[in-house]
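In the current project phase, the collection of sequences with tokenised folds has grown. A representative record is quoted in full directly below:
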Amino acid sequence: MKSKVALPTFDQKASLDHECDMTDNPNDKSHSRSDAFRMVEGYVAPGFERVRDAFAAGLNEEVGAGFAALRNGEVLVDIWGGWRDRAKETPWTRDTLVPVYSTTKGVSAIVMAWLHDKKLIDYDAPLSALWPEFGAHGKDKVTIAQALSHQAGVPGFAQAVDPALWLDPVACAGVIASLAPLWPPGSASGYHPLTWGYIVGEIARRAAKRSVGEILREEICAPHAIDFRIGGADAEEARIAEIRKPSRIADFGEITPPRKAAFFMPWSAPNRGASEWRRIEIPSANGHGTALSVARLYELYATHGEISGDRVLSREGYAALTKPRIVGEDLVLPFNVEWRTGVLSNKHFFYGPNAEAIGHSGAGGSCGFGDAKSGVSVGYVMNQHSHHLMGDPRSLRPIAALYDCL
């Protein structure tokens, strides 16, 4: 049985059957833009209704969003609501895609681990052995693991470049390789918000003669029917949510040279959201998916290398992916962090209450994580960006409710 019910606020809770199909009437313009008539659709397993309520409360701060949680591969929650467009005229649906920005990194890290597992790369080898040009200016001893854990010292371009360079991945990777590091490589981490993806992309191109997006699609997403892609999203433009920018920028503290290069130069990012940006592959930033697809991919972090019961990484490969690589004050992010091989430990408990959880967050508020202690994985996506770098309250609330229900 399906029911239809509005969930306007946290206090005005409504009971619903565990499978819900709750769609606002798009022709009812008197209600279509009112927060009081937000609607939630999707599936909630028995006993997890509080997750739906917490998610519904957060929709008052959103345009549209989705939240999904799995336990040992079983769907506990897969819900969505709000609007796909900024005008609030087109409802968010089950198959609405949204760019998840740096939540993409945790997915690309899986591809890198797959390459390592297949012995196509060696985390402990110098990146310059695979990519000689990367060794310029004293970067010759930077290992692949150090590059993946943001220790290479090239978080952005300190000197001016044409922003269009970002739209040519091979050329952009070449310029990144030629850069002098902004700190001694290996001495500290400094988050590489975009350059990380171009480094990763070049590693895959040289080691596997395939792109990160191709490997993801052919080896992981297609076999498991996961609706996520890195690059090629221009073909799906009709179902991609529009992004609304945040009302204020994040607080980074002092704008140091690494932070300035990473985020605050006029050329620090391409024109995001255009068809060309969606078409190319940026493994650090332009993954597009649903909340369920993010939860499915991050399930690997909850199961020591499995997705839907299939082993994607060997246990040794998973251990290498999740091995702590560096901990300390990050030179770009205003956090003390512990980097694994492309993903973050749950040092600040942004990813639930268990320290074992591993995840990544994306600009604006998205996140994905897997928690091996509970067997839970989560995906949260949205199109109203906030200023929170990590630990967005809109995701923390349903995550807290989820663990309360376990």
